[in-house]
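Field log, afternoon session.

UNIT: design team B
ACTIVITY: writing a sequence onto a fixed backbone
BACKBONE:
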């Protein structure tokens, strides 16, 4: 069952993602839920646990675009269109990044990668469907923890390009 915790700046520890949000003074709501290690889809698990439509819960994927790691943030209800991602950043070819490289570069574990507070800031593309929602949910930096925020705040904090990179 999900627990909700309202944040609006303030102090406190947390994950690098929540620390980054707090430092920026960005309003957000933190949602914690009991993560099942046997789950097949972290994003769908989050949507169900939070009682939120899967088109408002976004997953963070790391892809390799022409040799450069790039973050793609897309709804859990669909899939990443690698060709559209490459095009959005002026690249030719994109493939999913090696999971170990994604974890090492972001500082997060798979299923808990957040577009915020990464060890090395990566180029980020946010699916343009996010702009159709008042708020979206993204990983707060660990499995079982989501942060809800305005998509324009996420885009501003990550210098994200908005582009149609999701499908399905």
């Amino acid at each position: 069952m999900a627990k909700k915790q309202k944040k609006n700046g303030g102090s406190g520890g947390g994950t690098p993602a929540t620390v980054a949000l707090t430092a920026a003074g960005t309003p957000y709501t933190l949602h914690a839920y009991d993560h099942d290690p046997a789950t097949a889809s972290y994003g769908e698990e989050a949507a169900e646990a939070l009682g939120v439509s899967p088109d408002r819960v976004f997953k963070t994927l790391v892809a390799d675009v022409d040799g450069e790691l790039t973050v793609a943030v897309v709804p859990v209800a669909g899939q990443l269109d690698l060709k559209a991602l490459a095009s959005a950043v002026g690249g030719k070819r994109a493939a999913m990044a090696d999971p170990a490289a994604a974890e090492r570069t972001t500082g997060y574990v798979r299923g808990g990668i957040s577009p915020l507070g990464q060890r090395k800031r990566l180029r980020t593309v946010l699916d343009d469907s996010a702009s159709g929602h008042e708020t979206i949910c993204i990983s707060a930096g660990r499995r079982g923890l989501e942060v809800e925020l305005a998509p324009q705040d996420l885009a501003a904090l990550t210098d994200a390009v908005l582009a149609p990179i999701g499908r399905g």
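LOG NOTE: The first strand starts at residue 3 and ends at 8.
NEXT ACTIVITY: expression trials, pending approval
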